[in-house]
């Protein structure tokens, strides 16, 4: 399953990498791609939206599902 979440505050490639790493650490995630141009992250796997949002916020970005 692919889920897209909104991520605000990414301004560079390092930000995208930080968000991708945070999402990849969530149980059930098999892949994650962040895009600062669209303020989104696409996540592959079975993780629930609340866990994804919490991981991104813990990394220092605003997120919503």
TrEMBL record:
It comes from the Archaea. It holds the Pfam family HMA. CDD domains: HMA. Residues 1-64 form the HMA domain. This is Heavy-metal-associated domain-containing protein. It comes from Halosegnis marinus.
């Amino acid at each position: 399953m692919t889920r897209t979440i909104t991520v605000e505050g990414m301004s560079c490639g390092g930000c995208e990498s930080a968000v991708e790493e945070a999402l990849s650490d969530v149980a059930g995630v098999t892949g994650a791609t962040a895009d600062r141009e669209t303020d989104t992250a696409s996540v592959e796997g079975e993780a629930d939206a609340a866990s994804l949002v919490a991981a991104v916020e813990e990394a220092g970005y605003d997120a919503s599902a």
